[in-house]
Structure formats: structure tokens, C-alpha cells
Recover the amino acids of this structure.
């Protein structure tokens, strides 16, 4: 696991890093745009990747996008990434095991 994906940052630090209020960060979590982990005591823990994502979300919001639009954009990007990975894997398999004409 990359250091960017480790959930170790508290919401207060995320707020300082992003300039977002803790309330805004919680709102984005409620809208399913960000998914922090929770400690057994309920403390939210974020990763550096989450911080970057929150900055992108804030930029989209400043551009006038709604949270539902941002979520749709993310889902579309995830589908594209999945399709690309599948095509690359098929290409690798075809290169490793070429079809033979019979």
C-alpha cells in the first residue's frame, strides 16, 4: 500500500491542509464523495489521496457543480479506468498466448 493511501490523517489536519471546514468535509462524506476510515472510537482517518480528492471536490463545487454531478463524474471515470484495465489485460493475454490459425 502506498503512503498516499494510508488512512492516518485526522479531520482537523485535513481541514488545515485543504482550507475546507470540518463541516464541509463531513458533508462530502455524507454525500458519498469521500470515505474516511473510522477508528474504534469513531475518529475519522483520511489519506493523502483523500486530501487530494477533497481539493478536487472543492474546485468542482467552486465551478458550480452539484455533489450529484461530481459523483456521476467519478463513477464514469471509474468505469473508464476499469474498461481500460480490462482491455490492457486482454492485450497482455493475447500477446502471451497468441491465437493460432487452424
Amino acid at each position: 500500500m502506498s503512503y498516499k493511501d494510508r488512512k492516518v490523517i485526522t479531520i482537523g489536519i485535513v481541514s488545515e491542509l485543504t482550507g475546507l471546514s470540518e463541516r464541509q468535509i463531513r458533508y462530502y462524506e455524507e454525500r458519498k464523495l469521500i470515505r474516511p476510515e473510522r477508528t474504534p472510537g469513531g475518529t475519522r482517518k483520511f489519506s493523502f489521496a483523500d486530501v487530494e480528492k477533497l481539493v478536487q471536490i472543492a474546485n468542482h463545487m467552486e465551478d458550480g457543480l452539484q455533489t450529484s454531478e461530481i459523483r456521476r463524474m467519478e463513477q464514469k471515470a471509474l468505469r473508464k479506468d476499469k474498461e481500460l484495465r480490462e482491455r490492457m489485460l486482454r492485450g497482455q493475454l493475447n500477446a502471451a498466448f497468441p491465437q493460432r490459425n487452424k
